Amino acid sequence: MRNRTRIAWTFLVPTLVLMAMVAGWPLGRSIWFSLTDTSINDISAGKFIGLANYFGEFGLFANPNYTEGFWKSDWGLSIRNTFQFSIVSVVLETLAGLGVAMLLNQDFKGRTLARAAVLIPWAIPTIVSAKMWGWMLHDQYGLINQVLLDWGLIAHKIAWTADPSYALWTVVAVDVWKTTPFMALLILAALQTLPKDCYEAARVDGVHPLRLFWKVTLPLIKQPLMVAMVFRMLDALRIFDLIYVLTSNNSTTISMSGFVRREMVENGNLGYGSAASTSLTLIIFLSAVLFMRTARLKLSEESS
Amino acid sequence: MNSRQSCHLAAVALALWTTASSQAASLTISCGSNAAQVASCTKFAEEWGKKTGNTVSLYQAPASTSEALALLRQQFAAKASELDVIMVDLVWPGIIKDHLVDLKKYSKGAEAKFFPAIVANNTVGGKLLAMPWYANVGLLYYRKDLLEKYGLKPPETWANLAAAAKKVQEAERTAGVKDFQGFVFQGKAYEGLTCNALEWVYSFGGGEIVDAAGSITINNDKAARALDAAASWVGTITPGGVLNYAEEESRGVFQKGEALFMRNWAYAWALGQAADSPIKGKIGVSPLPAGPGGKKVATLGGWQLAVSKYSKNVDLAADLVLYLTSREVQKKRAIEGSYNPTIVDLYNDKDILAVNPFMGSLTDIVGSAVARPSTVTGAKYPEVSNAFWDATYDVLAKKASGAEAMKKLQGKLKQVKRSQW
Q1: What share of chain B is helix, strand, coil (3-state, %, to 5)?
Q2: Residues A247 and A253 sit within 8 Å (Cβ to Cβ)
Q3: % residues pLDDT > 90 (chain B)
Q4: In the beta sheet, which residues pair with residue B123?
Q5: What percent of chain A has pLDDT over 90?
Q6: Is residue B242 exposed (0-12), middle (13-18) or buried (19+ Cβ within 10 Å)?
Q7: What is the pLDDT of residues B271-315, one digit of tens each?
Q8: Which fold has domain A71-294?
Q9: Taking phi first (over 0 means left), then psi (-120 to 50 degrees means alpha), and beta for anything else, what does residue B251 get?
Q10: CA dihedral A92, A95, A96, A102 (to 10 degrees)
Q11: Which of B241, B408, B411 sits opposite A162 (nearest CB)?
Q12: Which of A187, B142, B211, B240 has the smallest count of CB within 10 Å of its CB?
């Protein structure tokens, strides 16, 4: 037994060391920075200031200089924007993904080709597809405005990515386009594991397809569906690249990751920015835990 | 041959190799992002390379100046030696002063012929941190053929500009040019918007955000009125998409012939007069208009050349800097690319004026240009600029009135200032 433990440790140690170097040390340093007032101008000159970056006079939360309240401040606004984006985006992607998965589950000619084709939006790197969409959505010489104008659906050209009232929802639309294949694939994998005899019996009994969906399919894929939603939600809460490339990046549409980048990279406040990124991690962790609690997600082997 | 001869041969070869490699240094210069800048810079850097027997390779910086600064600061934090010569924006010396070499001992007084304001801007703590390379001011470009067609003159005030733009825009749209715009400028939330907005605010008499003594002066009604005026253009004479336009996007609309007025930097002239430009020969340039009771003003911009402290070839790099900022090279660049020289007497040069007729009037514009408060706010300038462009963006996007935005901005600037700049 001791021999087996030793062998197990021998196999695990390289991975653990590598993870500590690549993930553990930067994370630890980042958390350490968040407790100091380091600036990028001279990284070695940072002083320890405890939790002042979080709760102090010029901190993230409980800052007395937030003249219009926490939710109108840059940090509060970024939290609100990110959650708005994530919730709408994940719901839409799940519904669309479910539909696409149900379709791809049927047997039809060219099904393999369709399954491969559906993956294309997910496969293109986000920067490339975001730039592409940015050109199509351009207000003066973009394709989308031209097409909508020609079909008479809009009266004059809309500034999709510049107008603050449209910007966030445009980003949601592009994100749904990009990530629906991911959800569809995860749900399809779940659908393929369903036992066929249930459906045979239902067909013999003449059950309505919609009832079949609600009473049989959905409960059976509930667990994988919730897992896919948690994955997507964790991703969506970290959204950065779409907003950065598509929109103008001012404070009203900024996401939490965008705020972190602005503080750390553009303003050079490594201490304050690290505090923001640590808070971001904790917020995402809490959201995931809450979601799994509410969905009563049981990840262990004992099924209901 | 015997071992002694081969030993000698090896020694000679080694000596030759080391002397050859110690002469042919390889420098890296970061000097621009768009194709025209890169081509011009490479040409003159390679000339220097041939003359001195070194090679110069190009490092392409990001297009947005805010991003270029962010990247540069990270490289300085890592003490990277990859960059030798850096093109530095007017507002950067105060921010990156700890990482640049003092050029006074290399320039030997050559800076006396340059614009004093720019040299003063580049001198921090008694050290000359960068040589001025080309000056930039905001200019008003207009379609002189259209102004003639409708019997109008270049506008003297912003109100004139708005009226002229409205008239021509309506007429052109009825005549069939469907997306004709009156006025395009840079409205994206980045440093360029700070430049545009400072022009509006200062020309209305609203001051310069933070004054020379360090007090926050932006919360006044003249500044609020300036921003409200600008917000009134968006959606009427300016497309809503201007909120996402940087320099190239606004130039794209103007160069396609779809705008009457454009506010942009001097580089747009050479590109607008290029052989394949649809508006060649149809553009004019004038100073930006004044606000009511205020005066005409442009934001001072411009780029300088500096040497990184972490470079492995500081002397050679300084030599390259002085070559590129010399009289001959600046004159050639003014003629070929309409880069405004930083040597004052070049503005009276006949050859330059033949190609860029408006440069004669530029001496006054550059001399009276307003600088952004980068020197007084030092390393906190990026945050100050960020807060200012955010506030302006909110007003342009009609999310806040000028007065509300200025009040909020004052609170934010107090937060940035903390106890002192």
Answers
A1: 55, 15, 30
A2: yes
A3: 55
A4: B128
A5: 46
A6: buried
A7: 888 888 999 999 999 999 999 988 899 998 889 999 999 999 999
A8: MetI-like fold (1.10.3720)
A9: alpha
A10: 170
A11: B241
A12: B211
Structure confidence by residue, pLDDT tens digits, B226-246: 999 999 999 999 998 899 898
B262 in a structural domain: yes
Residue from the list B77, B189, B418 with its beta carbon closest to the beta carbon of A250: B189
Q: What is the pTM of this model?
A: 0.79
CA distances from A53 to A37, A220, A273, A279, B412 (A): 8, 47, 9, 11, 16
For a pLDDT cut of 70, what percent of chain A falls above it?
Answer: 97
User: DSSP assignment, residue B27?
Assistant: E
Owning domain of residue B121? 25-135+300-367
Chain B residues whose CB is inside 8 A of the A41 CB are 73, 76-77, 95-96, 98, 379
Best mutation target, B99, B190, B244, to test chain A (most A CBs within 10 A): B244
Residue B189 touches chain A, beta carbons under 8 Å? yes
Closest CA to B261 of B229, B284, B277, B230: B284
**A288 within 8 A of A233, measured Cβ to Cβ:** yes
Q: Are residues B322 and B412 in the same domain?
A: no
Whole-number Cα distances in Å, B390 to B43, B193, B385: 38, 9, 8
DSSP B210: B
Whether residues B348 and B400 fall in one domain: no
What does the alpha-carbon distance between residue A206 and residue A200 come to, in Å, rounded to a whole number? 10
Residue B95 sits in a domain of what CATH number?
Answer: 3.40.190.10
Quickly state the pLDDT bin for B9 (edges 50, 70, 90).
low
Computed on alpha carbons and rounded to an integer, the radius of gyration of chain A in Å comes to: 24
Q: Are strands B123-124 and B127-128 parallel, antiparallel or unpaired?
A: antiparallel
Decide: B322 and B110 in contact? Cβ < 8 Å. Answer: yes
Is residue B155 domain-shared with residue B214, that is, in the same domain? yes
Specify the number of domains making up chain B. Answer: 2
Residue B86: how many other CB atoms lie within 10 Å: 29
CB < 8 Å to A159, chain B = 239-241, 243-244
Q: Which residue of B has its CA nearest to A146?
A: B179
CA–CA distance, B268 with B36 (Å, rounded to integer): 11
Burial of residue B403 (number of CB atoms within 10 Å: 0-12, 13-18, 19+): middle
ipTM over 0.90: no
Cα distance between residue A123 and residue A126, in whole Å: 9
Distance CA B95, CA B306 (A): 13
B35, part of any domain = yes
